[in-house]
Design brief:
- This protein is mainly α and 164 residues long.
- The chain has a domain of 94 residues.
- It contains 6 helices and no strands.
- Helix 4 packs antiparallel against helix 5.
């Protein structure tokens, strides 16, 4: 078996060759790299705020109306949950117990409304994008039709060309 493995490795030099490894940095290079990395990290944080998200599709956080609407929904959801939870907890006979239940209800409603708002706005943003694509496609078709009409000769010129 060892002979078969040796002949298989000799037949396929790519499989037999070791994987390339990155050269190791010396102590001096590591110190220099550390300073450069710290400077790059500081710049990266500033650039990350201004850069667009790296996701595949559109971002709700980048959509101005969606961001405001989700924030508004979260605040109203948390407030409504707190008030409703507090009101329904009043018969417990302790103010501390009612307050704790109100806080828990507020947090639960806050998270639930946030998830629902994000779900809804994802669909709305996608619909807006599809609508805009259709508008642009219609504008391109209209421009192509106008260009084609301009390129056609006048009707009188066409009749004269047929007669000759």
């Amino acid at each position: 078996m060892a002979a078969e493995a040796a002949t298989a490795e000799a037949a396929d030099p790519v499989a037999a060759s070791p994987e390339p490894r990155a050269p190791k940095k010396g102590a001096k290079d590591a110190k220099k790299g550390g300073k450069e990395d710290k400077a790059a990290k500081g710049k990266g944080k500033k650039d990350a705020k201004n850069a667009e998200p790296d996701g595949d599709g559109p971002s709700i956080a980048a959509h101005p109306r969606a961001t405001r609407a989700v924030a508004r929904a979260k605040s109203w959801g948390g407030l409504a949950g707190f008030v409703l939870g507090g009101y329904l907890s009043l018969p417990t006979n302790t103010l501390a117990g009612a307050g704790l239940r109100a806080l828990i209800a507020g947090v639960v409603c806050y998270v639930a409304v946030w998830a629902g708002a994000v779900f809804l706005w994802r669909r709305l943003v996608m619909l807006e994008i599809k609508s805009r694509e259709q508008q642009l496609a219609a504008a391109v078709q209209a421009a192509q039709a106008a260009r084609a009409r301009r390129e056609l000769p006048a009707p009188a010129e066409r009749q004269g060309a047929r007669a000759s």
